C-alpha cells in the first residue's frame, strides 16, 4: 500500500508540475515546434537536446505529455527545495566527473520500462547558443546500455530581445539504437544530427 501511495503521489507531483510549467511557458515564450511527430508516443526514447539556457528543461518538458526522466548533474540535488522535488519526479542524478554506474543503471532501467529520458549530451550548459559543444563521454554509454530505443536530436534557439521570447524547437528524425550499436559511433551520429536540428531551428527563428 505504501508503495502504491508513493507512486500515486509522485505521479500527481509530476503532472501538476507539468501543468504549471505549461502555464509558465505560455506566459513567457512564443514557442513553435517542428517535427514534434518524431517523438514516439510510446516505447523507450531519449530526447537529446542542445543546452544553452536554464529554460531548456521547461521547453523539453512540455514537448510531450509523457513522463520524462531528466538526467541532471548531482549538484542540483544539493539545492534546497529542488533536490527533494527532483527525487519525487524521478530525475536521475549523475556525477559527470566519473563513470557513474548508478546513473547508467537508472537510465537503463527507465529505458527497459519503455520510458523517456531527457538529457543534454554536451553535459553542461554551453555559452554559445548557436553551436553544439562536444558530446560528453557518458552519453554513448547511457544510450547503449539499456533496452533498444531511439534517440531524438533536438535543437532549441531563443530570441529574447522582445517579450514574450521567441523560441524555435526542431525535433529531428529518431536514431535507432540496437544492442550492437557502439557508444562512440552513436555519440558522433547524435552530435551531427543535433547540429542539423539546431541549424534548422536557427533558420526557423530568422524567418
Briefly say what this structure is.
41% of the residues lie in helices and 22% in strands.
List keywords for this structure.
207 residues; alpha/beta; 8 strands; 8-stranded mixed sheet; Glycerol-3-phosphate (1)-acyltransferase; 41% helix
Q: Mind summarizing the main beta sheet?
A: 8 strands, mixed
Secondary-structure element sequence?
A: HEEHEHEHEHEEEH
Shape: globular
Segments where pLDDT lies below 50 for 5+ residues? none
Q: What is the count of β-strands? A: 8
Quote the beta fraction.
Answer: 15-25%
Number of domain units: 1
Cα-to-Cα separation, first versus last residue: 54 Å
Q: State the CATH superfamily name.
A: Glycerol-3-phosphate (1)-acyltransferase
Helix content: 40-55%
Which value, in Å, is the CA radius of gyration? 16 Å
Q: What structural class should be given to the helix and strand makeup?
A: alpha/beta
* Tally of contiguous helical segments: 6
Quaternary organisation: single chain
Q: For the record, what CATH class applies?
A: Alpha Beta
Q: Which fold name is given in CATH as the topology?
A: Glycerol-3-phosphate (1)-acyltransferase
CATH second-level architecture = 3-Layer(aba) Sandwich
Mean pLDDT reading: 88
Amino acid at each position: 500500500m505504501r508503495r502504491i501511495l508513493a507512486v500515486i503521489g509522485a505521479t500527481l507531483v509530476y503532472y501538476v508540475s507539468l501543468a504549471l510549467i505549461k502555464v509558465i511557458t505560455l506566459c513567457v515564450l512564443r514557442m513553435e515546434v517542428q517535427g514534434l511527430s518524431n517523438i514516439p508516443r510510446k516505447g523507450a526514447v531519449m530526447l537529446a537536446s542542445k543546452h544553452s539556457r536554464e529554460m531548456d528543461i521547461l521547453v523539453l518538458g512540455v514537448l510531450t505529455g509523457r513522463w520524462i526522466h531528466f538526467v541532471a548533474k548531482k549538484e542540483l540535488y544539493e539545492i534546497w527545495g529542488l533536490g527533494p522535488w527532483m527525487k519525487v519526479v524521478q530525475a536521475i542524478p549523475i556525477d559527470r566527473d566519473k563513470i557513474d554506474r548508478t546513473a547508467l543503471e537508472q537510465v537503463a532501467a527507465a529505458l527497459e520500462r519503455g520510458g523517456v529520458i531527457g538529457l543534454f549530451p554536451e553535459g553542461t550548459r554551453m555559452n554559445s547558443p548557436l553551436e553544439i559543444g562536444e558530446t560528453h563521454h557518458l552519453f554513448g554509454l547511457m544510450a547503449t546500455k539499456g533496452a533498444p530505443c531511439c534517440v531524438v536530436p533536438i535543437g532549441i534557439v531563443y530570441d529574447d530581445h522582445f517579450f514574450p521570447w521567441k523560441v524555435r524547437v526542431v525535433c529531428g528524425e529518431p536514431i535507432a539504437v540496437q544492442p550492437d550499436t557502439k557508444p562512440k559511433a552513436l555519440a558522433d551520429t547524435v552530435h551531427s544530427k543535433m547540429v542539423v536540428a539546431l541549424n534548422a531551428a536557427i533558420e526557423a527563428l530568422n524567418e
